[in-house]
Design brief:
By secondary structure, this protein is α+β, with helices and mostly antiparallel strands. Helix content is 31%, strand content 32%.
Length: 310
């Protein structure tokens, strides 16, 4: 049995996850990951909510089935001949997104970093540059928080997010622009174009309040620019870039998800990030976001001073 931590959860697994942070074996894990057949009774009693059974779809093939139950148990039943290396990204991605939603978190398709002990997130679909931007901040001395799957406890005051695991996934051109030799990065699987870049040196180990969310655009802009989003547009972007909404579709989960997105919009600043198409513009983009965060802190300080003197 292997023991890990991710999202402030103690995880026991029957197979190895080199992506996760290792930990001592706890007597009572928060999450148990098993590799076995899913029984007919488990299939018949699945409710599509807190007991979900689905198919593993990887690289245009059906790789097996999975069960996620009550935010505490993951069972993976691979089809014959399927490598565990191909299963791990699916487990740590969509399957973990289901588990985290069962634990009542809002789960976004986002990467995030720690800036001034606050979480700053980059929201967008796969291939839009979330991981690359998070790694660019890491290279400037900031700590990584999450890559691709971001779990937020919206009910906290303020909302907080939890550290996932110390790595990002990079394509060859992104790796080169950040100063890495792509061939030396860890291969995920021969079918997967990206590789894992381990970022152990600065990985936040504590939950942090969410400061700001930047929604990435998948359209090239003539200059790097940040613009505020109206509450309506911010809500639309959160819903659009949430994870596991296509799997957990019961009325209870749908209404809870919409309520969480609406509450996050009320409490967190959400902006649109327009970007130049060139990876060479990454340092300029990092500087723009740094200045935006610094200005927000300055504005908040002014508001406190005005309120105190009234």
């Amino acid at each position: 049995m292997f023991a890990y931590t991710a999202y402030n959860l103690h995880i026991h697994s029957e197979f190895r996850f080199p992506e996760l942070s290792e930990s001592e074996v706890a007597q009572q894990p928060d999450v148990l990951i098993s590799l076995r057949s899913i029984s007919q009774l488990e299939i018949e009693t699945a409710d599509g909510a807190n007991k979900l059974v689905g198919f593993l779809e990887l690289e245009n093939i059906t790789a097996g089935r999975f069960l996620v139950e009550s935010g505490r148990k993951i069972v993976v039943e691979p089809n014959p001949g399927i490598d565990q290396d191909l299963l791990r990204p699916c487990i740590l991605g969509p399957i973990f997104a289901v588990l985290l939603r069962q634990r009542s978190y809002l789960v976004l398709h986002a990467s995030s970093v720690a800036i001034n002990n606050k979480a700053v997130a980059f929201l967008g679909h796969s291939g839009w540059g979330k991981s690359t931007l998070a790694n660019a901040f890491y290279n400037q001395g900031y700590s990584l928080l999450t890559d691709d799957v971001m779990a937020i406890k919206v009910e906290s005051n303020p909302p907080i997010t939890f550290p996932s695991f110390p790595q990002v996934k990079l394509l060859p051109d992104a790796a080169a622009s950040l100063g890495y030799d792509f061939e030396k990065l860890t291969s995920i699987h021969v079918r997967v174009a990206k590789r894992n870049n381990r970022l152990d040196q600065r990985f936040s180990q504590i939950a942090l309040p969410v400061k700001r969310i930047y929604v990435l655009e998948n359209v090239a802009a003539t200059c790097n620019e940040i613009e505020s989003l109206s509450p309506q547009n911010a809500l639309m972007e959160l819903v659009r870039h949430s994870r596991a909404t296509d799997l957990l579709t019961t009325p209870e989960f749908v209404s809870s998800h919409l309520r969480q997105c609406a509450n996050l919009v009320k409490n967190i600043s959400i902006c649109r990030l327009k970007r130049k198409p060139s990876l060479d513009a990454l340092p300029e983009l990092v500087k723009l976001i740094e200045e935006d965060i610094a200005q927000t802190i300055f504005d908040n300080y002014d508001n406190i001073q005005i309120f105190a003197s009234a």
